[in-house]
Design a protein that fits this description.
Length: about 180
């Protein structure tokens, strides 16, 4: 026969599961110190990423404008824009506000209501300045793929870190030049 219920059954003391407040505070303090060391480096990486992303987008649109001019055998214009729907006024030479590409059917270098926008880009995040070295406000690609003007360049200046220059030659080809600040 078995004995009375509850008698003879010895329970072992339960083991503590979890962390003490001291262990938790020590871990949080170490994480805060590591985060403080890593954040400045992350800011530099983010600025470089914004700069490189802007350069890739700009180059892709330059290639698109050139290829469209060759394919359509018509003049194609890429101009800076404030709103993505029309070219910026003559006094505005900053490209960080955006740009647009259109096929110029009547050869006047101006986006008219009958001309469709091929592509457009809005403001570029994290970029302090995106300006042409010679105040160019538009790149005009002829049906043979050449630019109507000579060589030009756009300098991409991020909010912090080194600048990147996109050099566009008369044949519509480009190269990247890193600039230190």
């Amino acid at each position: 026969m078995s004995g009375p219920i509850g008698l003879g059954a010895v329970r072992s003391p339960s083991k503590s599961r979890g962390f003490t407040i001291v262990e938790l505070l020590t871990t949080i303090a170490m994480l805060a110190i590591l985060a403080g060391l890593a954040l400045p480096a992350m800011g530099g990486l983010l600025a470089k990423w914004h700069r490189d992303s802007t350069a890739r987008t700009l180059i892709a649109h330059l290639q698109l404008a050139r290829a469209t001019a060759i394919k359509s055998t018509k003049k194609v214009v890429m101009c800076n824009s404030l709103d993505g729907m029309q070219c910026a006024p003559s006094g505005h030479s900053e490209w960080s506000t955006g740009w647009l590409i259109f096929q110029d059917n009547n050869l006047n270098n101006v986006l008219d209501p009958a001309e469709a926008v091929i592509a457009s880009t809005g403001p570029t995040p994290g970029i302090a300045s995106l300006a042409s070295s010679n105040k160019v406000r538009r790149f005009v690609f002829l049906p043979n793929g050449l630019m109507s003007a000579g060589m030009s360049s756009l300098v991409i200046k991020p909010a912090s870190g080194s600048s990147l220059k996109v050099v566009i030659n008369r044949t519509g080809r480009f190269r990247l030049v890193s600039e230190t600040t």
